[in-house]
Amino acid sequence: MRFIIRRKGKQMRPMFVFLAAKISGQVTEATYRASSLIELLHTATLVHDDVVDDANLRRSFFSINALWKNKVAVLVGDYLLSKGLLLSLEHDDFRILKIVSTAVKEMSEGELLQIEKTRKLDIKEDIYFEIIRSKTASLLASACAAGAWSATGDEHTTRLFHDFGEKIGISFQIKDDLFDYGHDNIGKPTGIDIKEKKMTLPLIYALQQADNSTKRRIIYIVKNQNKDKGKVNEVIEIVKKSGGIEYAREKMIRYQQEAMQILHQFPPSEARDAMEELVRYVTERRY
Question: Are 117 and 145 in contact (CB under 8 A)?
Fold first, then answer.
């Protein structure tokens, strides 16, 4: 546990909990518990993800499974999850627990759907959005919803913030997709998603625009030559020429703008300004 705490990340999701609470009402003791639950849950999923992905590094440090093997990593993830659940149950935060538990279910569904579709590489745009809505956006949506509920106990406000968080989460994932292509002058393209056979939005768009011969070539490279740097770069160039980068960026900005429209239903405040800054960070971050 000490190892995990020393290497904690940006803790962005708890920030969404606190800001949602402040925008809609006041920060309460339940807000602190909600933000702790979200961070415990997020950390648990990361520990488990490293086992699933057989990853030895997390945030430039060794992962739990690299140091203590898979069995310990799985148990550590389970322990973190149970600590979060007990924190809510011991204080009767049943509505918050329901919000977050629903996100856990959706994250698992999204991951399983992605695994199923990756085998055939037949992901269409609607399936892609279903995967990222479940896998990535659901946790951010639950963070915002839990924060709103902790401050207001109001279903309508909670729903608004859930929708707001979902749109930001989708934006966040599309931004991650763009990093694979060296977007926004962040340096050379990484091609990591292609090597892992992940169907990202720029790649899906390129496949939709390509003729049958090019489509077959892209799929063959992603399936069979994804470790060949030259071949991966060839796919990256096809995606760039197809307009896939611009298309994905437009989608990302559209979701960000829709989120801002929801946010502006609430009166101006210092907390709302801070939330807007956080939203901009999601789509303008360099890493």
Answer: no
**Residue located via tokens 């999601």:** 282
Q: Would you give the distance in Å from CA 182 to the centre of its chain? A: 19
Alpha helices in 25-154 (DSSP H): 29-52, 64-89, 94-120, 125-132, 138-152
End-to-end distance of the chain based on CA atoms, in angstroms? 26
Question: 164-194 burial, b for 16+ CB within 10 Å, e for fewer?
Answer: bbbbbbbbbbbbbbbbbbbbeeeeebebebb
CATH superfamily of 2-284: Farnesyl Diphosphate Synthase (1.10.600.10)
How many distinct helices (H) and strands (E) make up the chain? 14, 2
Give, in order, the Cα–Cα distances in Å from 121 to each of 20, 101, 200. 38, 30, 11
Q: Are 63 and 75 in contact (CB under 8 A)?
A: no
pLDDT in tens, 115-171: 888 777 778 899 999 999 999 999 999 999 999 999 999 999 999 999 999 999 999
